[in-house]
Amino acid sequence: MIRTFALAAAVLAPVSLAAQDLPTAPYLPLATATTAAQTALDACAAEGQNVSVAIVARDGATKVLLKADNSGPHTASSATGKAFASAGLGRDTAGLAEFIAGNPQNSGLRDMDPRLVIQAGGLPIRIGGALVGGIGVGGAPSGDIDASCARAGLDAIGAE
Question: DSSP alpha helices (H): ranges in 64-113?
Answer without folding.
Answer: 75-89, 93-102
